[in-house]
């Protein structure tokens, strides 16, 4: 580490401490040449992958854009902000764990649909209808059938659709 006062590259670490969370290391250093002391901080630097869009353009990952897309699909749905934030965090963690420098936008869309399907079926269908750009009503109907195909337990304990959680509230 170069001294910020005299630019000499010879410095010594005199003290090292981690913060409570263990994600930042604070180091006190002393310059061998000018004997001045200074503090440095060491943090994890995670880089999100770049997104490769369908047209081949590349863009930086945007946390706010991802969260905004999910919030738009979940607008007026009974899902808490905390649940949305947790879903966004899971998507980001998955992207980081892939270890790729670039990820196709289609992969992110699939991760979003997977999270929305767990959070709210109506939001999942909303997002899928825009994301998949359905050509006709049959494609739209297929997604609805896919969501409805899973048997659920109603309040009576019987398998089948729960009227209170029916996709269209009917």
Order of helices and strands: EEEEEHHEHHH
User: Uncertain spans, ≥5 residues at pLDDT below 50?
Assistant: 156-170
The overall pLDDT average reads: 83
The best one-word shape is: elongated
Radius of gyration over all CA atoms, rounded? 25 Å
Q: Which class do the helix and strand fractions yield?
A: alpha+beta
Number of helices: 5
Largest sheet: 3 strands, antiparallel
% residues in beta strands: 15-25%
In short:
With 170 residues, this protein is an alpha+beta fold. It is 39% helix and 18% strand. It has 5 helices and 6 strands.
Structural write-up:
The structure is a single chain. With 170 residues, the chain is of the alpha+beta class. It folds into 2 domains: 33 residues; 101 residues. It contains 5 helices and 6 strands; from the N terminus they run E-E-E-E-E-H-H-E-H-H-H. The strands form 2 sheets. A 3-stranded antiparallel sheet has the order 1-2-3, with no helix packed on it. A 3-stranded mixed sheet has the order 5-4-6. A hairpin with a 5-residue loop joins strand 4 and strand 5. The C terminus is likely disordered. Belongs to the NrdR family. This is Transcriptional repressor NrdR. Its cofactor is Zn(2+). Keywords: ATP-binding, DNA-binding, Metal-binding, Nucleotide-binding, Repressor, Transcription, Transcription regulation, Zinc, Zinc-finger.
